[in-house]
Amino acid sequence: MVQIATMLKKFSLFFHPAEIDLSFSPFALRLDNQTYQIMKASDENIADLLGLEQEVYFGRTPWSRFSFKSELKKHANSLYLVVYQGSTLVGFVGMRMQAQEGHITNIAVKPAFQKRGIGGFLLRTMIEIAQRNHAVQMTLEVRSDNYNAQSLYRKIGFRDNFIRKNYYYGFDVYRTCWYLHIHVFYFQITSFKTKLSLSRGGNYHWLIKVLLF
Q1: Does the predicted model carry a pTM greater than 0.85?
Q2: Is 153 marked active-site?
Q3: What is the Cα–Cα distance from 68 to 45, expressed in whole angstroms?
Q4: What is the pLDDT of residues 51-100, one digit of tens each?
């Protein structure tokens, strides 16, 4: 009976989706003895976003100023977060909610700050927000030769699905589409807990979910 009720709830949400809640309050993140500020992105961040893209993509910007400006206007179903250390943008992530799916539209971490847990934190944050909005799966695309990112996605639970050629105009590369079923997503508590604590107004909280469903 419980399984039937759960299935009926899923069908109801599919045909009558609940209002999307992408609210987000800025906070300070303490990670590996470093402090970062996490907040929603705005037009004021576009110059920094373009600069970070140039670092990550070897001087190119897959997303133009217009692309960022257009995406940041889609408040109804999209959320973009930026991570700063002081005045330096060190990472960002974007997600679009569609039906019962959360799609990662863009994610990048400044090369000098990679492998510090920032990318994983951003992905886990978006997965939690998607789950809060009744999403049952997450999707994203990654360059087929970006092995570091693929390793992170596998660690979180994503699996590769199919390949697209020339995902970005002017980039002669393949991109692999990945998916994650949220109901089997687990935080890696033992390793994550030692690295992550959140400070909000002086109070510390653990961002830990055992099962997101």
Answers
A1: no
A2: yes
A3: 9
A4: 999 999 887 778 999 999 999 999 999 999 999 999 999 999 999 999 89
